[in-house]
Structure formats: structure tokens, C-alpha cells
Predict the structure.
Amino acid sequence: MSRELKTFSYDTPEYHQALQLRNKILRNPLGLQFTEAELKKDEQDIHFGLFEDGKIIACLTLTENKNGMMKMRQVAVEDTAQGKGIGSVLAIAAEKIAKENGYHTMFCHARKAASDFYLKLGYNIIGDEFTEVNIPHYLMEKKLI
């Protein structure tokens, strides 16, 4: 089994694999589908994926923000790969790229159910719980030092 961490662009074969994973893990369980406007946002973003024997098993997206901040979003790990540290590997790699590109803070809108994952990675909860895509979330951030 060979694993490869890759960055990739919008509308590539890797992007389409990531989109399928995002749908399966993040959207379908909530009865949601991506809108054309939501997918259009992906064009300018940095996409990461962890591939095992050519098949994506985890992905995330980085969106550039103002004031030296980078937003991590759409973090998805294949069901069979969850709980094995794969999401952490991907998040740490994304943080490294953000820092190398001059960003000092990574933030995300973390699902409440995933907040422990981010806390273990050194993220802090900022403010009160809020609702996004009909489920509880927290704004979380981490200084990239």
C-alpha cells in the first residue's frame, strides 16, 4: 500500500475524487448537495488529498483570507480510515503550507462533533456555538508559529 499526499487544482481528476468524498462524508448524511455557487468557490482554493494506491482517502480545502489568515474547510476522511491519524496528517501538512506562504493563523468552522479533533491539533474555540448547514459548529483557530 502506497500513500501520497498531493495538492491539486479545481476540476482535475483528483478534485473530482475529493468532491465525491466530500459529498459522501459531509453532505449526503445531512441530505445536502453542493450548489453551483459553492463549487465555484473551489476554483481559487488550494486542495489537499491523501491518496492510497491512487484512491483518495482524505481531503481538505484551504481558502485564502485577509489579514494573514487561512481557512481550512471541507475536511473529510473516508469512513474506513477515520480514527487512524490520517486527518491529522493532512491538517498538519496544510498548516505547514499555509505558514510557508506567509499565513500566521489557520481557522475553521468546525462541526461540534469534530471539535475534539481540532482541539488535539492545538486549535482553540473562539466565541459561542453557532449553526451552519443545520448543525452546531464552533469557530476555531490556531496560530501558526
About this structure: The chain has a mean pLDDT of 95. The chain has one domain: 3-107. The beta strands are 3-8, 46-52, 55-64, 69-77, 105-111, 124-132, 135-143. The longest helix spans residues 13-27.
